[in-house]
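Quarterly update from the structural biology core.
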Amino acid sequence: MRIRPFRFIIVLLFAALFVTKAEAQTKVSASGDKTRVLIILDCSHSMWDRWQSDSKIKVTQQVLLKFLDSVANQQNIEVALRVFGHLNKNSYGTRLEVPFEPGNNYKIQSKIKTLVPNGACTAASALSNSLNDFPTVSPSSGRLHGGADNQPRNIILIITDGMDDCDGNICDVARQVQMSGVIVQTFILGIGNKQDFQHSLDCAGKFTYVPNEELYTETLYNIFKMSEEEAQLVIAINDETDHLLETEMPIAFYDSQTGVVKYSTLYSIDGRYTPDTIIIDPLIAYDITLFTRPETRLRKKQFRPGRVNRLNVTIEQGSLWLHLDGKRVNYQIPQYPILVYRHGTTELVGTQLLGEQFNYLSGTYDIEMLSTPPLRLDGVSVVSSSATDLSLPTPGLANINKTKVISSGAVFTYKEGVLTHVCDLNPNKVNERLILMPGDYQIVIKPQNSIRYTAVRSMRFKIESGQTTNINLSGN
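Predicted structure, tokenized:
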């Protein structure tokens, strides 16, 4: 049978529609994450003021009704509505008018149609109460977005004209909300006259001033579009010669607005010297910490959705190795902890044990080995792509022989006529062995059953590197 050209075109159109619909369904089902958007709507009395073609509330109702029609059929997006300033003239109350539930679009539209601005601004209270509006889920496992935990992305959208004074510090409330870990991002749409936003709302979320009705609708669409997308990020950590570092390195992503950690991962490269691709949320501006020694911090990095973003970081570092000079001894030397500070400060940038070797960023450091007494080295330089090798003197052994009478005492360093306390002696031991760094010392001892100063004994002695020094107090 011959098919007429007109009918043939109709068949092709229906086939194309069917394929497009199937592809859209596949895309939705493949993206297993659900996005929940809570709209917090300002319905305070100033929303009656005229703006553009009508009052602010009328324009808002028209924009929201049309917009909700467009997102009604998106299966992976749920919307809820909280309103403030609408209960009565003297009320500062707020209420969740339509909770999150599938197919609630008609309820939200019906409620929006009936809203009457009547009270005062309670944006801070509305934001504070919003945490209870999101369905409870199990705590996030801390994996990167898109992992197997399928945690929902909770977003708050505040629409306000910014005119009325609010009941509380919305900046403090916003930080508490963000630190809860429930909310991914808070967006704020400011409508009306720009001069009405005398105080900045950037502290409470991503603030956008909407100057007209056309941009009102466009901004809403952009927010919902971003809420469905994710960003791919490739971090390339290079040395000063632009070669990829082959070592693994922990990395943390913090919300730059609140300082709350969002993701953590471990940087690595594969056998083809290709860095990993990380999936992150593009709604957030990040402060990124690379756990070098000291930490490397990158401020306010934001990544575009729907594309592969590349972040190149150059790290100039060398190694630091502290060890003893290798003298043979017949006593056991402790594996002393070593503290590394940024030069001239008390900022601790790393710890290691004697004999260990670690990388540090190029720079100058102060080093303290927790020996007895502690050994301090100031102004140690670490040079890029080089090894700083520090050979330290081997401690010596002080073999102290006390009287048989139970005694108490202490050991001091002696330098330029000044005593510095090192340690107390154990009164229950007749013979005591102390591992001490080379130097001049003084020991002071007194029988515990004596109250006379004349019974106090003292002696100076010297500790040589890798040598045993016998100190006999029993004959004094």
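The chain is about 20% helix and 40% strand.
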